[in-house]
C-alpha cells in the first residue's frame, strides 16, 4: 500500500535519493528544501504526489508551521524522515565558536525540533514512523570529526529517551547509521575549520592525509542502495531501533562497541565497589 512521507533535506544526498525512489514506486512525498528549484524536475514529473516547502530546520517556528501544514494538506503522514544536516571537519581548536553553534543548531537541535513538531500529529493520527538519519559516527568517531560526532551521539541519546515515551502511541523510531557514501557529504554540504600546522603529525593530520589520498575509496557506500534499505525498513515490524548501512559503518561500529564492552566489563568490580554499603550485608 502506498505511503506518505515527510523528508527534510530532500534536495541532495540521501534525501534526494529517497524522494526519487519513493515517487517512482508510487508513494507521496512532502519534501522540504532550502531552495525549491532543486526539485523542479521531480515536481514537473510527479505533480500532485510531490508536496514541496522551503524549510530551514534551525527555525523552530518554521519547522512547526511546515510540519502542521503538511499534515493538514496531506491528511496523514506515515513516515517522517529527519535527514537535513551537514558535516563539520576540524580538530577541536580548529573550528570556530560560530561553526560549532551552527553544527549543533542544524544537526542536533534541528532533529529535535522536527521530532517535537511531528510527534503530536503522529500521536493524534494513531501512530507512524520516524526515521532519523544518524551516522556510524554516532557510535564512534574519527579525528577532525568530534563536533559532528557530538551532534550524532546527541541525537541518538535524545531518541533513546524518546522512543519509550512515544511507543504507547504507536510511534516507532529507526536510527539510520550509514557509513561514508558517495553523496555530497564531504564536499558542497561540508564546512571546514582552519587547519593548524601543529596537527600535521597527529592523528588529525594523518586522517586528513588518508582522506585526501584515498579518494572515492573512502566512500564505499552506494547512496541509492542506502536509500532503498531505509525505505524497506519502514515496512519492518517492529521497527529496527538502529540500521547500520555500509561495510565501513559495520566495521567501525562493531570495533567501537566491542572495545567499549570490554572496558566496561573490566570495570565491573570497581563499579560495584562504589555502591553504598548495606548495613548487615555479608562481606
Protein model, in words:
- The protein is α/β, with parallel strands linked by helices and 283 residues long.
- It has a single domain, classed as 3-Layer(aba) Sandwich (Rossmann fold), CATH 3.40.50.
- It is 47% helix and 14% strand.
- It is built from 9 helices and 9 strands.
- The strands form 2 sheets. It has a 7-stranded parallel β-sheet with strand order 3-2-1-4-6-7-9, sandwiched between helices. Strands 5-8 form a two-stranded parallel ribbon.
- The longest helix is centred in the middle third of the chain and has 28 residues.
- It is globular and about 65 Å long.
- The chain starts with a strand and ends in a 10-residue tail after the last helix.
Bin the helical content: 40-55%
CATH class: Alpha Beta
Number of strands: 9
Looking at CATH, which topology would you report? Rossmann fold
Low-confidence stretches: none
Total domains, how many? 1
Strand content: 5-15%
Give the SSE order as H and E letters.
Answer: EHEHEHEEHEHEEHHEHH
Largest sheet: 7 strands, parallel
Query: What is the rounded Rg?
Result: 21 Å
Strand line-up of the largest beta sheet: 3-2-1-4-6-7-9
Morphology call: globular
Q: What's the total helix number?
A: 9
Strand pairing plus helix content: what structural class? alpha/beta
CA-CA gap between termini: 62 Å
Mean pLDDT across every amino acid position? 93
Q: What is the CATH architecture descriptor?
A: 3-Layer(aba) Sandwich
CATH evolutionary superfamily: NAD(P)-binding Rossmann-like Domain
GO molecular function: oxidoreductase activity
Family: Belongs to the short-chain dehydrogenases/reductases (SDR) family.
Protein name: SDR family oxidoreductase
Keywords: Oxidoreductase
Amino acid at each position: 500500500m502506498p505511503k506518505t512521507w515527510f523528508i527534510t533535506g530532500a534536495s541532495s544526498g540521501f534525501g534526494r535519493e529517497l524522494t526519487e525512489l519513493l515517487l517512482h514506486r508510487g508513494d507521496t512525498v512532502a519534501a522540504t528544501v532550502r531552495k525549491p528549484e532543486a526539485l523542479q524536475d521531480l515536481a514537473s514529473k510527479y505533480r500532485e504526489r510531490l508536496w514541496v516547502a522551503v524549510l530551514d530546520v534551525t527555525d523552530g517556528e518554521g519547522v512547526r508551521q511546515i510540519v502542521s501544514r503538511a499534515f493538514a494538506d496531506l491528511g496523514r503522514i506515515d513516515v517522517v524522515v529527519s535527514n537535513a544536516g551537514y558535516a563539520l571537519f576540524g580538530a577541536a581548536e580548529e573550528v570556530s565558536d560560530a561553526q560549532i553553534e551552527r553544527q549543533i543548531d542544524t544537526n542536533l537541535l534541528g532533529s529535535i525540533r522536527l521530532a517535537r513538531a511531528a510527534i503530536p500529529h503522529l500521536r493524534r493520527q494513531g501512530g507512524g514512523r520516524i526515521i532519523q538519519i544518524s551516522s556510524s559516527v554516532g557510535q564512534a568517531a574519527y579525528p577532525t570529526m568530534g563536533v559532528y560526532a557530538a551532534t550524532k551521539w546527541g541525537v541518538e541519546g535524545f531518541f533513546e529517551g524518546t522512543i519509550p515515551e512515544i511507543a504507547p502511541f504507536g510511534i516507532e523510531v529507526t536510527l539510520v547509521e550509514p557509513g561514508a557514501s558517495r553523496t555530497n557529504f564531504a564536499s558542497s554540504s561540508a564546512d571546514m575549520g582552519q587547519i593548524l600546522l601543529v596537527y600535521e603529525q597527529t592523528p588529525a593530520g594523518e586522517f586528513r592525509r588518508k582522506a585526501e589520498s584515498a579518494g572515492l575509496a573512502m566512500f564505499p557506500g552506494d547512496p541509492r542502495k542506502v536509500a532503498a534499505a531505509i525505505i524497506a525498513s519502514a515496512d519492518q515490524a517492529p521497527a529496527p531501533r538502529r540500521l547500520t548501512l555500509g561495510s565501513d559503518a559495520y566495521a567501525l561500529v562493531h570495533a567501537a562497541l566491542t572495545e567499549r564492552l570490554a572496558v566496561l566489563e573490566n570495570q565491573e568490580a570497581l563499579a560495584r565497589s562504589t555502591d553504598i554499603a548495606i548495613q548487615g550485608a555479608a562481606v
